[in-house]
Every structure is written in structure tokens, then in C-alpha cells.
């Protein structure tokens, strides 16, 4: 039996995860889903973010479904670093997979781009870079304060994620990988990334490549997103670039992601790209599609391809039926997509 751990988390994380669970229950009825109450309320009640015993239990699942963590009542970083980044690091989820596809019915701010013309996947490094937590502060709170935040990059970590990007490109129609970094300024880390990319590329003669600096890539993501097929980049550049990719393909409410451990040594974790959205939490208006599409990535990862396809087809049907600007209720979207999944799977 497939065992999934579910962490709704904070704000709209809870709301969208409830809808994703509805859809999962229909897509894979024979599924054990175990809820974990982690996030701001647990932190306030007990001071705990992620007890060791809970982490050990999470490790016993086939995958994790996460809503979002982060709340205005908790100092920034406590939940994000203590839960989300800790799991990404400890479960060695080094491939942060972020597909962006312009589906029919999704609203794009770009003129002259039609559905189907944007179909890219960002392979964001998930365990290193500026997220490593290396650095420190001197003279804190004084006018002499000095803060450093170091980007940690290893050949091992870079090579494995770059290779993953090439493997994905090999299986896609266009077979193209763009490496994104900032080699003109970040000579040490950029040099490692660029050399590793060029060396791995020689093993994939059927895959075409190019390189872009992150600033230019951010621009091209807006004015030429059709260019991209697979993008491989470091942790922070990938974080930023995928919010832009989301914005041009229907908005952050549609963007799904997977924190993948390709070796299956630990569970992978699937979550929307968006956060807990305190500005709209509790109103029942968050779009649950990103969370629902994350379950499609989850199903695919655990070898349930038919169920995964049913979920993504149901979402495509849901979006095609949408009227731009029409108010949407989180629960109604979940109900409609779940019903469509049931129909597709017969
Ligand atoms: P956010 O993604 O939560 O919100 C940005 C904007 O997008 C807001 O206006 C929000 O209302 C809107 N939005 C987000 N998801 C939406 C949805 N499903 N439907 C409709 N609108 C949606 O980013 P933020 O405001 O920068 O961060 C809020 C909190 O979430 C912070 O504490 C942050 O650290 C955390 N965060 C967590 C995760 C995660 O757990 N994976 C990811 C990003 C941010
Ligand atoms: C994301 C989020 C996280 C990140 C934060 C909340 C730590 O922005 O998943 O994109 O920066 O990776
Ligand atoms: Mn982000």
C-alpha cells in the first residue's frame, strides 16, 4: 500500500492541501495518507518545528505532500529553514523540479503567446548554494554590523543535478538544456557550474545547449519564454526564475513542484511553488491547482503514471472551462477536478 505523509502547514497551505487530498483520494483510492500538524500553530503550542521522531516517521513514507509553511506570527526563516529546507537537505532532494506549461484557459500577461507555446521545466538545485546556511554576522545590531552569506557549491552536487537535467532533456521533444548562472561575476561558483555543464554535455550529443546569465534569463523568461525547454540552475536563481515562469504561465496559483530524490533513498516532497499567502488565507479563494498538479508529479514519481495523467488531464479540462476574472472557490475547484479525475479513470 502506498503511504503518503501530508503536511498542510500554514495559511492557504492547509486549504489547497485539503483539495489536493480530495483529488488524490480519487486518483489513487488505495492510499494511506497520514496527516502531520507541523507549522506555525504547533510551533506556538510546543516550540517545536520538526521533532526528530516526526522526521523519522516522514522518512517511512513513499512521498510527502506539503502545502506551505511560513506565517507572519513566526520570525522569518524559523519554519522555512527548520522544516522545508531541513527536509529538502536531510532527504537529499537535490532535484527541485518546476515545470511551467501554458495550458489552454490559463491567463498569461504576455501578448501573442498561445497555449502550448510555453513548455519548460526548471531543474533547480535543491541542497546547496546560498541556501546552505553558511555565513555569519558580526557586531549584530550595531552600526558596524557585518553579515556574510556564502554560496556552497560542490562538484558532486553540481554534477548530479546537471546530469539529471540532461537525462530529462533526452526524454523531451526539443532536447535542449539552458544553463543559467552568473559566470561574469560569480567566478568561483559560476566557473564550477559552467565547466561541469560543458563536460556533462559532451556525454549527451543529441541534446543541444546554451548558457544565459541569470539577469538575461529573467528577461527572456518574460519576452521569449518559448525559447526554454529544460533549464538547470542553482538554488537561488532557480527560486526566482520559477516565480517568473509561473507568472507567465497562469500565475503562482498554478505552479507545481517536486523536491525529488531521484535515487529514492528518502521520500520526495511535492508542493506548490507558492507560499502560505497570508494576504488571502482563511477566505477560501486560493487556487488549489498548484497543489493538485503537485499530486500529479507525486503520482508520477511513485510509478502511478495513469493516475498522474488523469490528474493533469482533469486540470487541463478545469482550466479550459474557466472564465477569466470569474471568482473561484478553493473547494469548488477541488470538487470539480476530483469529479473529472473520477470520470477519466472510469
Ligand atoms: P506567496 O506565494 O505566499 O504569495 C505571493 C502572492 O501570491 C500573494 O499575493 C498571494 O495571495 C498570491 N498567491 C499565492 N498562492 C496563491 C494561490 N494558490 N491562489 C491565489 N493566489 C495565490 O509568497 P510570499 O507572500 O512571499 O510568502 C508568504 C509566506 O509563505 C512567507 O512566510 C514565505 O516564507 C512562505 N513561503 C513558503 C513556501 C513553501 O512552503 N514552499 C514557498 C514560498 C513562500
Ligand atoms: C520556494 C520557497 C522557499 C525557497 C522558501 C520558503 C524557503 O520560496 O519553495 O520557492 O526559497 O525555496
Ligand atoms: Mn520561492
From TrEMBL:
Cofactor: Mg(2+); Mn(2+)
PROSITE patterns reported in the protein's UniProt record: IDH_IMDH
Transmembrane segments: none
GO molecular function, one term: NAD binding
Superkingdom per UniProt: Bacteria
EC number(s) recorded for this UniProt protein: 1.1.1.85
KW Oxidoreductase (keyword) present: yes
Enzyme class label: oxidoreductase
Keywords: Manganese, Metal-binding, NAD, Oxidoreductase
Pfam families, per the entry: Iso_dh
Residue ranges of domain Isopropylmalate dehydrogenase-like in the record: 3-337
Name of this chain's protein: 3-isopropylmalate dehydrogenase
Organism: Stackebrandtia nassauensis (strain DSM 44728 / CIP 108903 / NRRL B-16338 / NBRC 102104 / LLR-40K-21)
Amino acid at each position: 500500500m502506498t503511504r503518503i505523509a501530508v503536511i498542510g502547514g500554514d495559511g492557504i497551505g492547509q486549504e489547497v492541501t485539503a483539495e489536493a487530498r480530495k483529488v488524490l483520494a480519487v486518483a489513487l483510492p488505495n492510499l494511506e495518507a497520514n496527516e502531520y500538524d507541523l507549522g506555525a500553530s504547533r510551533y506556538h503550542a510546543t516550540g517545536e518545528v520538526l521533532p526528530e521522531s516526526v522526521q523519522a516517521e516522514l522518512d517511512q513514507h513513499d512521498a510527502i505532500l506539503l502545502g506551505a509553511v511560513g506565517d507572519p506570527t513566526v520570525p522569518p526563516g524559523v519554519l522555512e529553514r527548520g522544516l522545508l529546507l531541513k527536509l529538502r537537505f536531510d532527504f537529499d532532494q537535490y532535484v527541485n523540479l518546476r515545470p511551467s506549461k501554458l495550458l489552454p484557459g490559463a491567463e498569461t500577461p504576455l501578448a501573442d503567446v498561445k497555449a502550448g507555446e510555453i513548455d519548460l521545466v526548471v531543474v533547480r538545485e535543491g541542497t546547496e548554494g546560498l541556501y546552505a546556511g553558511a555565513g555569519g554576522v558580526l557586531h549584530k545590531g550595531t552600526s558596524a554590523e557585518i553579515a556574510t552569506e556564502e554560496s556552497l557549491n560542490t562538484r558532486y552536487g553540481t554534477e548530479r543535478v546537471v546530469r539529471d537535467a540532461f537525462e530529462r532533456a533526452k526524454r523531451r521533444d526539443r532536447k535542449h538544456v539552458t544553463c543559467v548562472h552568473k559566470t561574469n561575476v560569480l567566478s568561483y561558483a559560476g566557473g564550477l557550474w559552467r565547466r561541469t555543464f560543458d563536460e556533462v554535455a559532451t556525454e549527451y550529443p543529441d541534446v543541444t545547449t546554451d548558457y544565459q546569465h541569470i539577469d538575461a534569463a529573467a528577461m527572456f523568461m518574460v519576452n521569449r519564454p518559448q525559447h526554454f525547454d529544460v533549464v538547470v540552475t542553482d538554488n537561488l536563481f532557480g527560486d526566482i526564475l520559477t516565480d517568473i515562469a509561473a507568472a507567465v504561465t497562469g500565475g503562482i496559483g498554478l505552479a507545481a513542484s517536486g523536491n525529488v530524490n531521484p535515487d529514492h533513498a528518502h521520500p520526495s516532497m511535492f508542493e506548490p511553488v507558492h507560499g502560505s499567502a497570508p494576504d488571502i488565507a482563511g477566505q477560501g479563494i486560493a487556487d488549489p491547482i498548484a497543489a493538485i498538479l503537485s499530486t500529479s508529479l507525486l503520482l508520477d514519481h511513485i510509478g502511478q503514471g495513469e493516475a498522474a495523467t488523469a490528474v493533469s488531464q482533469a486540470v487541463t479540462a478545469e482550466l479550459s472551462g474557466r472564465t477569466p476574472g470569474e471568482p473561484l472557490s478553493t473547494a469548488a475547484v477541488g470538487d470539480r477536478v476530483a469529479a473529472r479525475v473520477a470520470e477519466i479513470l472510469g
